[in-house]
């Protein structure tokens, strides 16, 4: 991290502001928005920030260590990059930027089924360490083909998504007529002309397309067609019958993402998942949802039986510490890393990870907490 960047962009708000200035409005709103009236997206962060931690100043304190184990792997910090679809639309080449940075910093990168980089490329950039998020295909042959590709790429973790039973209702995207490639309405052209760095980078890297799904997808879908294609090709509605063949086939770790209830946690344990990510898709699906920090509290009692991770609403080192103190074994963030990539291009992944690591370590030092697994001892109940 160069010191100029670190002094100009020391917080997520700084990165978000710069991203907003560099990305056309229709693409920024796709990244930044929640759904319906934006209640859930606001609640997620607000309720994480209600969590308070207590320092232990008089304890013998050596050095804090941010290394964290999850699913049998050790990472340099207790956070990773959540799967985000259509990344290249928000910032050209952003999945490559983020995968490379995650690999350099030894944190996990999860590739979305519907993003603009392929499983094979993600694996190449991370020396086989990228995790893969699967939208469950309706067609068994398609499902098996994607799983075979993830396995051939050496992917260690398959993340099955359960919180998209249907496409989210997002008024901004509906108004913007969001499409891939971007729809050339007068409004969108004017927005693109106003963001020359984004436009030039898009020209350089080419139209973003669904790279992993390329062999199976028709081209040039608008938002409505994309929704129809997704609904037809993938079934977010999961149950024991649909999950069993995936568990039987996948030899690596299997994680269920989007868990928000105790019952789904118990079912995930019964179905043989190794881990869950407590998530409400960053408040993009069910606007009446519980905040993920509250869902987490109801679920942590199962942490002996399944590894419990969390995302949705985290934006800073203190937020990560609050989630870990509340019982998460690991955390993930979606928008935060995309703000970083959009704000700073090739340097964005590196800077955002360094910034979050610095902020998180600083909280551990403030608490006089040496090990990440001791953070729950600092939680004020
Ligand atoms: C623009 C955008 C696209 C997303 N696309 C996907 C996706 O394709 N697959 C998936 O599992 N989750 C997707 N998510 C959800 C993220 O993985 C993650 O759960 C969410 O961003 C966490 O909330 P945060 O942004 O507040 O950190 C997306 C989120 C955003 C913001």
From TrEMBL:
Organism: Arenibacter algicola
Keyword Flavoprotein tagged: yes
Lineage: Bacteria, Pseudomonadati, Bacteroidota, Flavobacteriia, Flavobacteriales
Similarity field: Belongs to the FMN-dependent alpha-hydroxy acid dehydrogenase family.
Stated name of the protein: L-lactate dehydrogenase (Cytochrome)
Domain FMN hydroxy acid dehydrogenase as annotated: residue spans: 4-381
Listed InterPro entries: Aldolase_TIM, Alpha-hydoxy_acid_DH_FMN, FMN-dep_DH, FMN_HAD, FMN_hydac_DH_AS
One Pfam family named in its UniProt record: FMN_dh
Signal peptide location: none
Needed co-factor(s): FMN
Keywords: Flavoprotein, FMN, Oxidoreductase
SUPFAM superfamilies noted in UniProt: FMN-linked oxidoreductases
């Amino acid at each position: 991290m160069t010191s100029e960047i670190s002094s100009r962009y020391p917080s997520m708000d700084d990165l978000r502001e710069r991203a907003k200035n560099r990305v056309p409005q229709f693409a920024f709103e796709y990244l930044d928005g929640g759904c319906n009236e934006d209640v859930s997206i606001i609640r997620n962060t607000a309720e994480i920030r209600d969590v308070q931690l207590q320092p232990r100043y008089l304890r013998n304190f050596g050095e804090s260590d941010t290394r964290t184990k999850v699913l049998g792997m050790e990472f340099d910090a207790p956070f990773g990059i959540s799967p985000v679809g259509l990344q290249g639309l928000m910032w050209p080449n952003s999945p490559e930027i983020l995968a490379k940075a995650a690999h350099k910093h030894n944190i996990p990168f999860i590739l979305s089924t519907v993003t603009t980089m392929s499983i094979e490329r993600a694996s190449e950039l991370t020396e086989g360490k990228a995790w893969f998020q699967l939208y469950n295909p309706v067609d068994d042959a398609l499902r098996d083909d994607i799983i075979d590709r993830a396995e051939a790429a050496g992917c260690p973790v398959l993340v099955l998504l359960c919180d998209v039973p249907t496409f989210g209702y997002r008024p901004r995207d509906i108004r913007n007529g969001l499409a891939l490639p971007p729809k050339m309405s007068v409004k969108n052209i004017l927005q693109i002309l106003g963001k020359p760095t984004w436009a030039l980078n898009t020209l350089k890297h080419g139209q973003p397309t669904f790279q992993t799904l390329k062999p199976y997808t028709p081209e040039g879908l608008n938002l409505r067609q994309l929704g129809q294609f997704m609904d037809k090709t993938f079934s977010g509605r999961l149950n024991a019958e649909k999950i069993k063949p995936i568990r039987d086939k996948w030899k690596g770790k299997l994680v269920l993402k989007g868990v928000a209830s105790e019952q789904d946690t118990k079912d995930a344990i019964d179905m043989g998942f190794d881990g869950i990510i407590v998530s409400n898709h960053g408040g993009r699906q069910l606007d009446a949802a519980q905040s993920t920090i509250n869902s987490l509290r109801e679920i942590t009692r199962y942490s002996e039986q399944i590894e419990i991770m969390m995302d949705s609403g985290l934006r800073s080192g203190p937020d990560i510490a609050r989630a870990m103190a509340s019982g998460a074994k690991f955390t993930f963030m979606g928008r935060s890393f995309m703000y970083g990539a959009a704000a700073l291009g090739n340097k964005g992944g590196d800077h955002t990870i360094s910034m979050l690591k610095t902020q998180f370590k600083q909280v551990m030092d403030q608490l006089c907490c040496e090990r990440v697994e001791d953070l729950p001892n600092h939680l004020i109940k």
